[in-house]
Design a protein that fits this description.
CATH topology of the largest domain in chain A: Rossmann fold
Order of helices and strands of chain C: HHHHHHEHHEHHEHEHEHEHHEHEH
CATH topology of the largest domain in chain C: Rossmann fold
Low-confidence stretches of chain A: none
Radius of gyration of chain A: 22 Å
Distance between the termini of chain C: 54 Å
Strand content of chain A: 25-35%
Structural class of chain A: alpha/beta
Oligomer: heterotrimer
Chains: A alpha/beta (324), B alpha/beta (258), C alpha/beta (394)
Strand content of chain C: 5-15%
Structural class of chain C: alpha/beta
CATH architecture of the largest domain in chain C: 3-Layer(aba) Sandwich
Strand order of the largest sheet of chain A: 9-8-7-10-6-1-4-5-11
Mean pLDDT of chain A: 90
CATH class of the largest domain in chain A: Alpha Beta
């Protein structure tokens, strides 16, 4: 293995955290395999990012072009294909983010490269690589291997790899990549911000979060009562927003918000990864769910296996009684 | 407008005990119930609504063994005009293979729009739709949460992290992968499924599609399945709802929550 | 899509002249005897209002909306309106509402909790979506036998098999039947939903499939007599299954237990000291006119002072758990919910035990007792639990 390439992503003047996570993992693998770590960042003006990436990478390719506007995946794909065909890195890493999801599969097909997405871990041993993924609702892990190939593409699960501090002072190479293609078939129109609602759940000290187990929007009131007793806010997991019971500003998770309260109460939430990634910063996590095998319990500090509709009204009473 | 929606059948793992079998490569299936992949249901509903507004045809396709006919029947009951299953029994870890099969099938169909669910409930790779788009050489957008089609152009909104969205216009024909929450899929009644039995469900064999040997050789292999490490376990509070509520309230008080 | 002229009841649905009798119990003492009306206190939720809205929808005068669907599905099939409506088509009123629900089912337009209920039954044979493989878990450690041609099939039902509280009742009844020396067996994980709620939710084809499959299974096993835990199962098997070739002797357990006590097979001399008020379950009471067997049981047990609520028997206020509502839950969220009203009414009799004979009533009323803060004053007990205590099997 000679080179590991990490694709860095950025959006709205911010380098994505997941890129630093993948770089950290890349650094670890590169050192293990005595390989070089290369970071590639693509955009209109990427000097600042390149400086940051150089802390982990031995070399940074800063590819710039006027046409490279916002996060359209297609130009990145063209550029990366060219770079990868030329340099032949053994491993290409990126985050399994909305950017990575759009880019990696298309890149893999264009290169004819094997692809493993949303990986929890990667092992290099005996000259081969295996990747671990989570399947069946988080209940099973699957370990994959790959046919011998020139380049393997792997996307990593967001938030899975810790960011480790390095100070490599890698060499930065600026490349001006001419792009003939116009990409007219797909045009970026703009970003849509979440509507500014009344509540910012990211600032709350106590979050009472409801999931599918709440069964009906009428019961949301129970969560609200509990939140009032505890001086907190009501939040939710994705299905509650999908059903139209709460606005998306209340959603905790990958496509929602990250919260770091003193207490996170997960009511009727199974613990799907896309949700829990948003609550990992909580100091104390308590979960109530009818399913003893719900994966939320492996994250929670305390758990009650029971029907939330039975426990929550009582909990409200008991708290009120203790408050005096 | 001609729409093709690609769907799959998955096990219902929400309440089930998932047991890895002796081969360590499959899970035991006899106690499992099966259903249509959640994301695919949203994709189907999107397709049916489009068909209802713009007219045209809707075809549902899948690649799988004959048990997977049920999800095609459900798609027909929901509003698809016809269904096609490519008969294929192998469970593969490699989406690339399935993508190749779908590419070959789609090249024989006429389509303005191909819809996929953004990922599947069982393996959750999120690769298939985009791979097929690339193989067909048509534009793609993943994680679509809003879609409008007019005069050969689709206006879509796509989901990003932290609740933000980005919007695109994309020329048809195109491939879109659909995110949950884009709409509310309708209930499929049993009588609807029965009536749909008269609609066409075509089964094709792999040999009928022009596929190269390379296409059918997987690049990704499943080595084994493992039970995830349990990590730190929660301290369980037991007893009647009354008792557990009481205990929890005390714990919260002692932790200074209130 | 069905139009008004195609609607089976098109000749009578407009005949409601809004007298409002359907809101009252037989003895007229309260205007809140229709569970949905009691909860919402709006005309649209009363039977008359609902029928007018149904007619308007089928006649294209109003559009389907989620709210409209909730109004229709807020009817829990208690039959109070059937009991009270003075017009000659009164026997069909609940059928009229179910027919409207079935049109919504056909169009795929049902409220999300109803969709979940039905999809779960389709997939796992129970509305909770719990794994089919777990259906027999309630009987672990009880020594209850698998049905293999014994005299009785003890049919437990979905609520009894999966709901944590109802499971206790399922077990208690099994131990009672065992104590009485009854020859019986259960289906365990081979048991499938009886379909009563499915029918009342308007999914008629699914109901037919469930009925036919159950009948085939029962016949293959040589089932002749069935004793059910739930009045819902009792109702479906006794009244609907014969239409599909299922002719069995069907008993609700209170009918059997009453006889076992009378025959001396259950010794209740241990007694049960309490003031007990009995709540008539709709599917035993108004649907099947069985008001007596449960009362005979309670009267036979020494120590019980049996009192009655003002609205009882054919005038009982439904707990709100029918029509799938114990799951779909359209009537909670207020002190006006029928379950909470009923609990207050029970407490007003001075009783300290509220006796039920249905697992749905059990769930609804126990939750209401907690919501009303009456846990230390009023306990909800199933009749099987009262008898078991009197027999010393508890």
């Amino acid at each position: 293995m000679a080179e590991i390439l990490v694709v860095a992503e950025h959006r709205r003047q911010t380098l994505a955290d997941v890129s630093l996570q993948m770089l950290s993992k890349g650094r670890q693998l590169a050192d293990q395999a005595s390989a070089e770590l290369l970071a590639v960042v693509i955009g209109r003006n990427v000097d600042g990012y390149a400086q940051e990436l150089a802390r982990w990478a031995d070399r940074v390719l800063a590819v710039m072009n006027e046409k490279l506007g916002e996060s359209l995946a297609e130009p990145s794909q063209k550029i990366l294909t060219s770079i990868i065909k030329e340099r032949k890195p053994s491993l290409v890493l990126m985050g399994h983010s909305s950017f990575g999801m759009d880019l990696a599969p298309a890149l893999a097909v264009e290169l004819g490269a094997p692809l493993a997405t949303d990986c929890l871990d990667l092992f290099i041993g005996n000259g081969s690589i295996t990747a671990t993924r989570s399947i069946y609702n988080g209940k099973v892990n699957a370990v994959y291997s790959f046919i011998p190939c020139e380049t393997l593409i792997v996307t990593g699960r967001v938030g899975e790899f810790p960011i480790e501090d390095w100070d490599k002072q890698g060499e930065i190479e600026e490349i001006d990549f001419p792009l003939e293609e116009e990409f007219n078939y797909k045009q970026f129109e703009g970003y849509i911000e979440q509507e500014a609602g009344g509540v910012d759940i990211t600032q709350a000290e106590v979050v009472v979060s409801i999931g599918r187990g709440i069964k009906d929007k009428e019961h949301i009131e129970l969560a609200q009562q509990l939140a009032s007793e505890l001086g907190g806010v009501v939040a939710c997991s994705r299905p509650v927003v999908d059903y139209g019971w709460l606005p998306s500003e209340r959603q905790v998770g990958l496509s929602g918000k990250a919260v770091k309260p003193k207490l996170y109460l997960a009511l009727g939430i199974s613990g799907a990864f896309q949700h829990v990634v948003g609550l990992k910063g909580s100091k104390m996590i308590v979960a109530i769910n009818k399913d003893a095998r719900a994966s939320i319990f492996s994250l929670a500090d305390y758990g009650i296996v029971d029907d939330i509709l039975k426990v929550v009204p009582l909990l409200i009473q008991k708290i009120a009684a203790l408050k005096g | 407008m001609d729409i093709v929606t690609c769907i799959k059948r998955v096990p219902d793992t929400s309440d089930a005990d998932i047991i890895i079998d002796a081969s360590q490569r499959e899970i035991e299936g006899d106690t499992l119930a099966f259903k249509i992949n959640d994301w695919d249901e949203y994709a189907l509903e999107t397709a049916v609504q489009l068909k209802e507004t713009l007219g045209g045809s809707l075809t549902a396709v899948t690649v799988g063994p004959k048990e997977w006919d049920d999800v095609l029947r459900r798609a027909l009951a929901m509003g698809a005009d016809k269904a096609i299953r490519v008969d294929e029994d192998m469970i593969t870890a490699d989406s690339y293979m399935v993508a190749g099969i779908l590419e070959s099938l789609l090249r024989s169909l006429s389509y303005d729009l191909v819809l996929f669910g953004a990922q599947s409930e069982d393996f959750g790779s999120g690769q298939l739709g985009i791979m097929v788009a690339e193989m067909l050489g048509v534009p793609h957008v993943s994680l679509v949460v809003s879609l409008q089609v007019q005069d050969g152009i689709a206006r879509v909104k796509r989901e990003l992290e932290a609740g933000a969205l980005e919007s695109y216009t994309i020329e048809l024909p195109a491939v879109l992968t659909v995110q949950t929450g884009i709409n509310r899929p309708r209930y499929i009644s049993l009588s609807g499924i029965k009536r749909a039995m008269t609609k066409e469900l075509q089964v094709l064999s792999l040999s009928g599609l022009s596929l190269s040997q390379e296409m059918l050789a997987p690049m990704v292999r499943l080595e084994r399945l493992e039970t995830p490490p349990t990590g730190k376990k929660a301290e369980f509070i037991s007893g009647s709802p009354e008792e557990s509520a009481e205990q929890l309230a005390k714990i919260l008080q002692n932790s200074g929550v209130f | 899509m069905m139009t008004l002229t195609e609607y089976r009841y098109s000749d009578v649905v407009h005949r409601c002249f809004r007298c409002g009798y359907c809101k009252f119990p037989v003895n007229w003492i309260d205007v809140n005897n229709c569970p949905a009306y009691a909860r919402y206190r709006m005309e649209s939720y009363s039977t008359g209002g609902r029928l007018w809205l149904i007619r308007a929808w089928l006649n294209d005068e109003i559009n389907w909306t989620e709210h409209f669907a909730e109004i229709v599905y807020a009817c829990v099939s208690c039959k109070n309106c059937v009991e009270k409506c003075p017009l000659r088509f009164n026997i069909d009123i609940v059928n009229m509402i179910v027919a409207a629900k079935s049109e919504m089912v056909e169009r795929g337009l049902v409220p999300s909790t109803v969709k979940e209920f039905l999809e779960n039954v389709q997939r796992q044979g129970n509305p909770y979506g719990s794994s089919r493989a777990r259906r027999g878990e309630w009987s672990q450690g009880t020594g209850v036998e698998q049905y293999q041609g014994q005299e009785f099939l003890y049919y437990v039902g979905c609520v009894g098999s999966y709901d944590t509280r109802a499971r206790q009742t399922a077990k208690t009844l099994a131990s009672l039947l065992h104590k009485a020396g009854l020859s019986f067996g259960v289906l365990g994980k081979e048991e499938n939903c009886d379909g009563n709620e499915v029918k009342n939710l308007g999914e008629l084809t699914l109901f037919e499939m469930l009925a036919e499959d159950n009948i085939t299974q029962f016949k293959a096993l040589g089932v002749n007599k069935i004793v059910t835990l739930s009045p819902h199962s009792y109702n479906a098997m006794k009244n609907d299954y014969p239409d599909y070739g299922g002719d069995f002797y069907v008993y609700h357990y209170t009918q059997l237990v009453q006889q076992l006590i009378g025959d001396g097979k259950l010794d209740i001399s241990g007694g049960f000291n309490a003031r007990v008020v009995y709540h008539d379950p709709c599917f035993l009471g108004r649907w099947n006119e069985e008001y007596d067997s449960p009362r005979r049981i309670l009267k036979a047990i020494p120590g019980i002072e049996l009192v009655e609520m003002e609205r009882n028997k054919a005038g009982a206020l439904c707990c709100g758990g029918g029509g799938g509502n114990f799951y779909a839950d359209f009537l909670s969220g207020s002190e006006n919910s029928p379950a909470r009203r009923r609990v207050r009414e029970a407490r007003a009799t001075g009783a300290n035990i509220l006796a039920v004979a249905c697992p749905n009533c059990m769930t609804m009323l126990e939750d209401a007792v907690k919501a009303e803060d009456l846990e230390d004053k009023l306990a909800v007990r199933d009749l099987s639990e009262i008898v078991a205590e009197a027999c010393g099997t508890e």
